[in-house]
Design a protein that fits this description.
Number of strands: 8
Oligomer: single chain
Number of domains: 1
CATH superfamily: Dihydrodipicolinate Reductase, domain 2
Length: 243
């Protein structure tokens, strides 16, 4: 691609998320000092896997939503880039399939959940967590009523970005669409104080696909900056390899 003189945009729709923007603005307005950040995307892929859905054998469970989770964290600012790597962990997954005459159990290596941690440049602990077995790792009070997504529920996704100031016991949590009991393309941000809901910002219009496309067309037309460059995408790919 070094010899290619045209314009290239990588389609990372979460880079256009208004939910991330609202989280960032709330942090600044309240003067919070981030001590911990959690970016989680969890669902239950059991039915998808039984139906023959692609399995990532290189990055395992982190390969499906990992780039989006990283994009959301880095959308908060350069201070959240890695300074030092901490640790990572994996969970396996077992899928039970009941056929007419027999029951089979399939073992899937590292497909259940993945968590990666690093220390950011600003000193915050960043936690990247994703699960494909429906077990939510970091549950926050808000629109989701349970910390588990059952296998028959193919619609629910738990997609959050939280920023905590432990010294003040305040947490800003962004909930990306789809949100239970809400229309599509609507996000939500909740302010927690001492783990109790203090403020809710509802009905945040967050059609990231449309916004990302508009920014791309503006860039191609010479009316805007590149919304997501190849360099950014490759950098995120490197972060997938966090050890």
């Amino acid at each position: 691609m070094e010899s290619f003189n045209g314009k290239i945009v990588v389609n990372e729709n979460y880079s256009a998320s208004e939910v991330t923007n609202v989280v960032r603005k709330q942090i600044r307005q309240m003067g919070l000092t981030p001590s911990q950040v959690v970016s989680e995307m969890t669902k239950n892929r059991t039915k998808d896997i039984i139906g023959g859905r692609f399995l990532d054998r290189e990055h395992y469970a982190f390969g499906y939503e990992g780039p989006h989770m990283i994009a959301n964290v880095l959308g908060l600012g350069d201070g959240f880039l890695p300074h030092a790597f901490s640790c990572q962990s994996y969970d396996d997954m077992w899928i039970r399939k009941d056929d007419h005459s027999a029951t089979t159990t399939t073992f899937l290596f590292r497909q259940g959940a993945v968590e990666k941690r690093y220390i950011a440049r600003n000193g915050a602990l960043v936690i990247l967590h994703t699960a494909m077995d429906g077990n939510i790792g970091y549950y926050y009070p808000g629109p989701h009523h349970s910390a588990y997504i059952p296998s028959h529920d193919t619609r629910t996704r738990y997609r959050i970005l939280s920023v905590e100031d432990n010294a003040r016991d305040i947490c800003v949590v962004g909930f990306y669409e789809p949100i239970p009991d809400s229309e599509r393309n609507l996000g939500k941000v909740i302010i927690l104080e001492k783990r109790n809901i203090k403020k809710e910002i509802n009905n945040i219009e967050d059609d990231t696909i449309s916004q990302s496309l508009q920014r791309t067309l503006a860039f191609f037309g010479g009316k805007g900056d590149n919304p997501y460059s190849v360099f950014q995408a490759l950098h995120n790919l490197e972060l997938l390899e966090l050890r």
